[in-house]
Amino acid sequence: MIGGFHPDPSVCRVGEDYYLVCSSFEYFPGVPIFHSRDLVHWRQIGNVLDRPSQLHLPPGTLASGGIFAPTIRHHDGLFYMITTNVSDRGHFVVTAERPEGPWSDPVWIDLPGVDPSLAWDEEGHCWLTASGPRLARIDPASGEVLEGPVDIWAGTGGKYPEAPHLFRTGGWWYLLLSEGGTERGHAVSIARARSPRGPFEPGPANPILTHRGTSRPIQSTGHADLVCAPDGTWWMILLGARPRGYSPEFQVLGRETFLVPVEWVDGWPVVGPVEERHPA
Q1: Could you say which DSSP state residue 52 is in?
Q2: Exposure pattern of 111-122 as b/e (b: 16+ CB <10 Å)?
Q3: Mind telling me the catalytic residues?
Q4: What is the largest CA-CA distance in the chain?
Q5: Distance separating alpha carbons of residues 221 and 238, to the nearest angstrom
Q6: For the chain, first and last CA: distance in Å?
Q7: What Cα–Cα distance (Å) separates residue 96 from each residue in 60, 80, 106, 148, 190?
Q8: What average pLDDT score do residues 124-132 get?
Q9: Where are the domains positioned within the chain?
Q10: What is the CATH number assigned to the segment(s) 10-271?
Q11: Where is pLDDT greater, at 104 or 250?
């Protein structure tokens, strides 16, 4: 879908338009943002972090430091991008009325972890999830932590439970989670609850997506996000890699962004394997 070094994708839809962001690590400007009308063909429309007041990369910032795993969301007419600068002060939120920007200066949030994500309930409360996974209720305008953090469902036992995203559909809150590490053991699992606070019930077919232990050309599949199209179909975007050569295989393009359809069966998402296809 978006080839070559576009890891940790996150997506949101506004009307007929889709917007996607990816990790940028030690590079400036940070957090590339893309636009699409069909989830297949994407065009970069800018960078969310395009000035020094938004992105401080101290001297000596190491490779794979800086900006980790952004999430993009749209709520009440405003775009939100939340991420973690692991080389600076941690989590922060920036906002914009238009996805092209200008985006605001950071609002910092004093919470542990990486891979932050935002969701809003029917009462307008904003919930932040981050690796652990942990849950907190915050004020995204000020960065104040109003409740928590508390530990929530940590997956099926794989290492590094990360990239937790909360979604509300069909009367349930779904927690999408990646685990197993971002290497060949990467996998996507899911759980659900009636409240964002839990308790969460694991999906009966976890992991709902993994290519570990297979000979499929796309490996390391994980760090996923979900989006519902205007026609009611659901889609998952995720990172993956295309290793080549003999063991240990190598990947010259890094971690890329892929797309896969999602079906809902008995209240749970069913995800097919990620195929190696190229846009026409």
Answers
A1: T
A2: bebbbbbbbbee
A3: 8, 162
A4: 54
A5: 7
A6: 11
A7: 30, 7, 11, 27, 30
A8: 96
A9: 10-271
A10: 2.115.10.20
A11: 104
